[in-house]
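[09:14] KT: can someone run the structure on this one? pasting the chain below
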Amino acid sequence: GKVCVFTGTLEQMIRKDAMQIVANLGGQNADKKKKKTNYLIMGDHDFFRRDNEDLNKARELIKNGSRIKRLSESFFLSMLDDWARS
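[09:31] RB: done, structure tokens below
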């Protein structure tokens, strides 16, 4: 039931496939960051960029009470791998 937003350039997976994985696991995909967004999943190269518009919007939402967690693409894939092995 978590809401996920993918942003930036994904290099290890195709965005459409990543979104399908989220849906298959019972999550929801969104195109834009909103107050109800749970995870902002960013391409590895975009994760540390300070000029990332999506990250700045997420930070603004967090200041206003949102609980958005920011994940890199690699960390997201690692989470999926750990889940699949359990």
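[09:33] KT: thanks! The beta strands are 3-7, 28-29, 39-42, 69-72.
[09:34] RB: yep, looked fine to me
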